[in-house]
Amino acid sequence: MENCIFCKIARREIPSDKIYEDENLLAFNDINPAAPIHFLLIPKLHIDSLSDVQDIHQTLLGKMLLLAPQLAKERGCENGFRTIINTGPAGGQEIFHLHFHIIGGRDRLPGMIHSG
Ligand code: 5GP
Ligand code: ZN
Predict the structure, then answer these.
(1) pLDDT at 34
(2) Are 1 and 94 in contact (CB under 8 A)?
(3) Which ligand is closest in space to the CA of residue 43?
(4) Which residue's CA is the nearest one to ligand 1's atom 15?
(5) Which numbered ligand comes closest to the C-alpha of 87?
């Protein structure tokens, strides 16, 4: 995707604080971290959101889920971490290239979203 920020990061057209890369996946620190550890894990393949995944993405999604805890532990999340996938406008998604937020590095993250 020509103008997608995360595709541009994957193509190295814009810089990122990269922490992991392989043939299919890339992880880099979030530019505006919500906690001491906050990185994003993306497929290099452009997929708009979790609402757009299909059967052909099964292996890719499995790789992402397997990698997330490995990277979290490597980054120092020994006692756990939070994984967030904002999906669509109602889910608060701002960048429409599928990404997992991996957040941690505190004794305990604050509670989940409150109603209202
Ligand atoms: P979303 O709301 O789409 O789930 O989250 C997008 C995330 O991407 C936000 O946490 C935001 O700080 C991060 N972000 C946006 N633009 C950039 C960028 O150019 N570089 C990096 N590293 N993170 C970005
Ligand atoms: Zn993209």
Answers:
(1) 96
(2) no
(3) 2
(4) 31
(5) 1
Residue 116 has pLDDT above 90, yes or no: no
Cβ of 49: how many Cβ atoms within 10 Å? 18
The pLDDT value recorded for residue 1 is 83
Domain boundaries, given as residue ranges, for the chain: 5-22+36-104
* CB of 32 closer than 6 angstroms to any ligand 1 atom: yes
Query: Residue 9 pLDDT more than 90?
Result: yes
Q: Which residues surround ligand 2, an ion (CB under 5 A)?
A: 1, 4, 6-7, 46, 97
CATH topology of domain 5-22+36-104: HIT family, subunit A (3.30.428)
pTM recorded for the entire structure: 0.97
Distances (CA, A) of 25 to 91, 108, 113, 115: 23, 28, 29, 34
